[in-house]
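Below is the data:
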Amino acid sequence: MPRPGRRRTAEHPLNGSARTSDGVELRYTSAGHGRPVVLVHGWCQSAAGWRHQIDGLASACRVIAYDQRGHGQSGKPAHGHTVHRLAADLHDLLTGLDLDRVVLAGHSMGCSVTWAYLELFGADRLAGLVIADGAPCLTAGPGWSEQARADAGALFTPEEITSACAALTGPGDPEAAARGLIDSMLTPGASTELRDWLTRQNLLAPREFAAKLLGNHACQDWRDLIPRITLPALVIGGRASLIPWPAAAWTARQVPGARLEIFEADEGGQHFTFLENPAKFNQLLAGFIASAIR
């Protein structure tokens, strides 16, 4: 159950925690009132990455950002290193906070957690989805065409993802490896301060946990589930993102009535659009919630 805290307002977010069904503590921040919007961060990131959305959307809705297990300030158990366990944690959070008619906004691996939630629980407690730079399948199969790879957002072959996961727990410099990864996800105009901060967030996830979770995440193929989505959806991609923008376009085509927005390179259109261009990102979310969610 959530811990008690001071009265929630847009100006004074509430920090609390909830327990999963297997006893892991999830830390969260909640601000504002009204329609609940739950922000689901990506691999080796944290709720703090949504700070601009917590500040920018709390006047229009109730915004909840949480650290998934193994990330940020949440518990870091030696088990549960899978996307489907993270989806079960999300369901535990929604039920523990008694949230209904929720808009789920996932980023990167957070999109996979959202899709796994739909696979396990259907649209229970949900009213809409925001899919921000999520890949329908990160690992390409043998013989895939370049177009198939782009549509799926595939970045790896099976051999490459195995090597990437092994490198996370190898003898090299973890900070340098994390910094290199973060640099590949930001536009050249991103500040050194942002790069350093994202690197620190990445390293909060234990490296063995990070490696196991990346391997599990990268091997999920959501291309059979996405066309079965019937909820209102907003799909966001970046023209310069390491996830090829055709993956966002493909996803939007599969979901009836989905809205598609591609951030251009000079709009912060890389992987972290919500951090590089929070004003546009927040405007899109607020407009989607106001017009598409009943």
Notes: Strands lie at 14-19, 25-31, 36-40, 62-66, 102-107, 126-132, 233-238, 259-263. The chain is about 40% helix and 15% strand. The longest strand covers residues 25-31. Residues 14-292 form a domain with the Rossmann fold fold (CATH 3.40.50.1820).
